Amino acid sequence: MIQSELSSKVENIAQKLELRQLVVIQFLVLISSKLRYTSRGLTRKLGLPQVHLYRLIHEFSDILEPKDVNIETKKDLTGEIANYAKKMLLGIKINQNAIKEMINKYQKNRPKPDRNLDQFNATMATTVKRVTKLASNGDLVGKEIAFLGDDDLVSIGVALTHQCKKITVFEIDDRLNNLIIQISQENNLNIEVVKQDLRQLIDKSHFGKYDLVFTDPPYTKGGINLFLNQAIKLIKKNFLGRIYLCYGNSDRAREREVEIQKLILDHNLIIKTKLNQFNKYYGAESIGSQSSLYILDWTPSTKTVELNFKKVYTND
Amino acid sequence: MIQSELSSKVENIAQKLELRQLVVIQFLVLISSKLRYTSRGLTRKLGLPQVHLYRLIHEFSDILEPKDVNIETKKDLTGEIANYAKKMLLGIKINQNAIKEMINKYQKNRPKPDRNLDQFNATMATTVKRVTKLASNGDLVGKEIAFLGDDDLVSIGVALTHQCKKITVFEIDDRLNNLIIQISQENNLNIEVVKQDLRQLIDKSHFGKYDLVFTDPPYTKGGINLFLNQAIKLIKKNFLGRIYLCYGNSDRAREREVEIQKLILDHNLIIKTKLNQFNKYYGAESIGSQSSLYILDWTPSTKTVELNFKKVYTND
Hints:
CATH class of the largest domain in chain A: Alpha Beta
Mean pLDDT of chain A: 95
Oligomer: homodimer
Distance between the termini of chain A: 60 Å
Largest sheet of chain A: 7 strands, mixed
Structural class of chain A: alpha/beta
């Protein structure tokens, strides 16, 4: 079995079972390792419910040793599969320095944050941390990613990994759009930039086209609600559809964040992960210069909701 | 200024401002370090909104250099304060091996999980990880902690750190209660054990007495709702009141977890942190042998809610 054959097999099975490719690759690492795993062991190692593990085993039955208590690859395939899986894992590693250098190179061209658009620049470390988190969650390889606003230039960091299938930035601020286009062209990053006021309808040709949407929206109820609605329109309607949402407020205004969390759940998105104080900013001292990262997963009942809030940006 | 004086000063200010002692100690580390911080720098480093930082500065004004752009301790106090703060931080470090050894020592005495009580044993690594997380969140030093059920013996791990003021286990299973009492007595851990069916009223003398409640309840709507109600009765009604809640379900039954998250927010608790697949178990293969850890903070509108669900344990 040649590498390209394995590669497309992994891609197809991941797509069919609606699993991240990273999980499928981790499965291959385990079944081709010298340690021998039962299905129970694999369940625990992968954190994959038994039912999904069985589906995975079924899909890969042609490369597995039949009738064994341990789930193992056929002897003559073990080396090849182990090599492929390890190589894939290595390829997922992020070159953090390359991202820092690239953003540093264009630092002087970056526009001053526009407070009317609730722009606050995240620190360089935060931009890198976001890309690293996307990678470790299996959210880069083969993915189509949209950014709703991108004053932190995360799209550049993501593009530099050369792991995604497609990157689109929807941004209202022409100063940022021009900068991202410039960086993209000068470095062959192939980022698509769409000038978009997110208070307006997004062109329908983009609907349901993205595995993932990343956004650090205005921190008002209206802003969160509007950006979530737009994100939900953009994501593919399957178990891989995911939204990364940044949101912060003062620790003493907790009831405000409870309202935001209720809004998120009104959309029937699941709060898969919430990392407190994940993002750091220059400025934004009233909220401790930090915000949380929410990772929101699509559910079969995920929906857009009516916009009851007139205020989107803080100054509206 | 002697160490005991500093120590009680820190304790009092933390209590007055409703901040974790760990944050106050980190503040002291920064202002007594050779690096010089402006209030902006401190805000970013501590993740503390500016308003709270100013309150902290105000409370410590007697040890601070007056009229300086940088926030610094008075020259003659710097050494003493730096030593105190570093010693405190060191004291917070967890001896993971001691916890493992202790639980191993009593491993043979542990009762078999009772499925009628939805017991599933977490792995040893998970018990240690929970204690470590409590410590790094500043949730051990000087705290009064309650466990609603404790088949994973986290109370033992917590007691071994000797950082808490009080530890109480509310548990229905006498086999566990006897084991915890035995371990506590043989090792002077001073754990209070209360035999408690959590479907029944908890004695009012415990209400509002705990900074923190830890629970890995039955994963039904009724179970989550009931245990949250009990936890809310037990916690102190201030900004330090916090609940650690474990919950897991299959990744394909996402709508079920959305319902659980809505339940949490019905209590007007804030989901401060949610760590996906934090806990690992022996068994529980249908949910991938893993569950999430929710860290829920009190808000001024936190409340108990009516119990609309008859089913508490899965077999009810």
